[in-house]
Every structure is written in C-alpha cells, then in structure tokens.
Amino acid sequence: MLITIDPAAETPLFEQIAASVRSGIMDGSIRAGDRMPTAKVLCASLGVNRNTVLHAYQTLRDEGLLELRRGRGATITARADTLSRLSEAVRELVDRARSVGVPADTLARLIRESYPRDVPAAVPAPGPVPHHEEGEAR
Amino acid sequence: MLITIDPAAETPLFEQIAASVRSGIMDGSIRAGDRMPTAKVLCASLGVNRNTVLHAYQTLRDEGLLELRRGRGATITARADTLSRLSEAVRELVDRARSVGVPADTLARLIRESYPRDVPAAVPAPGPVPHHEEGEAR
DNA sequence: ACCTATTTGTCCGTATGTATG
DNA sequence: CCATACATACGGACAAATAGG
Do B93 and A90 lie within an 8 Å CB cutoff? Predict the structure, then answer.
C-alpha cells in the first residue's frame, strides 16, 4: 500500500489522500481489518499537516470505510470488502459500456436515473400535460 | 410510448423531450427501428415549437440514438437496443449497491474512477475498441 | 418524367431569463 | 444599477430530401 499526493494538483490534498485509500480498497491492496498508519506518521511521510490527514481519515469514516478510535488508530471496516466486491462488478459494467462506446458521463447518468430516490428533474412524472396552459406566468 | 413535459420545470424543454425518449429506450418501450412522431405532430401534442422538438431530436441524433432523414422522419437506431441492454445491467448493479447501502454519488464516482483515463498512445492492451464507421454507402 | 405533399435542415428575427462584469 | 453575453424558446420562411400519384 502506497499513498502519494500531488501538491500541484487541483484536487484538495485531503481528498487526494482519501482517494488514494479508496483506490487501495478497490484494487484489493487494502482490506477489512487493516490498520492505517497514524496521522502523525502519515503526515510526516507525505509532508503535509496532520490536520489534513485527519480530515482525510474523517472523510473516510463518514463514508463508513474507516473506524477511528482515540489511542488506537484507524482501522479499515468490513464495509471496505463490500465496496471492493462492488467495485469488481463496476469494472465489469464499465468494460461492457466501453465496448459499446458509451462514455463515462452517460453511464454515470444511467446510474443516477436508476436510483429510485432522487428523481431526475428531466422526467418528473408521468403527468398528463399535453395541453399548453396560457394564463400562467411569473 | 408517451412523451410528456413539464413547462414549469427548470430543465430545458428540448432536454426534457430528449430525456423522455431516452427513458423510453431504457425501459424497453422504445426499440430499434421504431419511428418517432414527426416534429410537426409532436410539437402540436406537446404544445411547443417545432424547432424545440427538432432540437431534441438532433440532440438524440448526436448521441447516436436517432436517425433523421428529410422526408422520412426519425428512426430509432440499433444503438438504442445496446443502450437498453446496458441499462438493464446498470439496474442490477444499482440494486446490488443499494442493498449494501452505497449511495448514488459513491457509485457514480466509482464508475468514473473505473474508466480508463484514455490518454493517447497509452493503450498496450489488446482492447478491441469497436471503431464506429459512419460513412456508409447506400 | 413531372408534380405535389411531407418532413427534416437551416436560417432569420424576437423575446426572455440568467450569468457576468 | 446598467451593459453585455449566452442559452432557451418561439414564430416564420425557405431549401433539400423523400415518397407517392
């Protein structure tokens, strides 16, 4: 497992760190039960402030991937393995989409529209509005 | 097949029409070879300008979902069926993600990160990306 | 071969709302 | 507050391709 950052990149440093951990989870190099280095150690090896590392860790905790305990450090949760298996399925889908020439944007939109919760404003409802109302404006 | 729009929504009308067709393609109610209503007919039934319908049609054409010919009308392309099958796979993945509590945002991000950052000349893989030839003698 | 109707393609101008400076 | 630019939508007009009488 190797965490690297690029201080010149647009992405915030804490997000780069979090993304690095996520990608480690997805490719299987980080698994449930693994211990992340302490914030002190990691910030030293990355050359960033300790708060930046903590920010990244807390972000991952909010995503349910990391468990933080005072005096014990950071532990990867079981959810990481779940996400890892899911990302395998994602890879297969992406391969399939790419093979038929569907770009990432379209696929991401497909995902969103398949989620029942957030109804896309584009197709709000099967509401019957074939008629054009006139007297309604501002 | 039913196309509806909501004049009060913030989404542009042409985009609503296009989204309605896409959604019809994805749920299987619109298939390859189907003929869309002419712009004249559709704009009358929706209560919008013909140019707005044409704008939506041309958007779908640019996405490869619709074939437009003067004097003949608008025909759904074979790509629509491809997209329909893909959206079925998307639904399955979304179900799986939802069952483990992964929100749409995370899944969409997973998709993006799984997409190969196709920088030119960085393809050592034997990936047979199907090149889509357009110029077809008729 | 000619003509006509239909349908998309394309341009014009106008109006509106939004974002920007 | 005003000016500008841009996207959206409308209404109209004509050109070009297609189909059929």
Answer: yes
